[in-house]
What does this fold into?
Amino acid sequence: MATAKEARDWARVALRGIGDSLYTPFRGADGDEIDWDAYRTLVRYCVGDLGHQMLWCTSGIAEFWALTLSERKQLLEVAIAEGRAVNPDVVVQACTATTSAKDTLELTLHAQEAGADIVYIQTPMMETHGGEGVLRFFTYIADRTDIALGMFNSPSSGYVLSPAEAARIYEEIPAVCATKEGAFRPAASRQLHQLAPDLMIWECDKNVYRAGWLRAGIVCPAQLGTSGYLFETPRRPVLTEYWQLILDGRLIEAMDHAQQTGMDQLELDLGPWFTCYPGRADYFTHWGGAFKYAASVLGLPIGDHPHSRPPQAELPEEAKVQIEAAYRRAGLIPA
It folds into this structure.
């Protein structure tokens, strides 16, 4: 674990590779319980079977808004215990975003005490007074904790920080060392790099990596939080092979690999179900039921309640048919 003072030096070395954002498997009536055995299996699969280097816990794919503080703490503790039993060096990243600064502080202090390596705070979801309000939120947490901090700039918050606002947070809070730029606006990420050249940026738009942004130092060599375990299997580790080509600077080979293995086609075939609910098509979401259905198609356990908790809707049959067909076409499940 990096202290606040060590955060930036630590991040330059430690943040590398694929970081898996874990879903939460539910069970029982209305999904009111968590299937802990299924969750442990998922952690071991990501760290052991796939050999991914990082975990990203209790964030959007985990449906953090539908979890109690107690559940979020236990999910992180289990991920740390199971992940480090397989790989003692696995980097554990915790998202502690809530609508309350006090609850975010409680989760951040818990992550610090439990042994997480870094905490990410998503731009608050409710009543955020722009970048000034987000800065106050981060300052409140940083003044009371001693752990590396990251920003998570996601449109699912309803407010996305501008490059200048994010750079100001980095400038004023030494513990802030990384950011997940989830708004798919690479021009803004390039501007943010110019304003804060030592900030570790992960841009969710994959095309920038093919464009040589890693070699140029604009983005970092880490996928801070992804659903990478849904895009390969131990038998066909196509994402790991692709990412290694990117890290090695073999960009043409990486693009050929993505086309020839069906990686690019898989993303097209899956459609928008992971991040778009048709009844609110203008809003970016993390549809937990879609991620978990995809995991079940690949043979991963998701608990006996396959749906998201409220306020998310149940995944329609149309989505299930499309997702399964996509994996069959990609060769990740038997034809």
Q: What stands out?
A: The chain has one domain: 4-238. The chain has a mean pLDDT of 97.
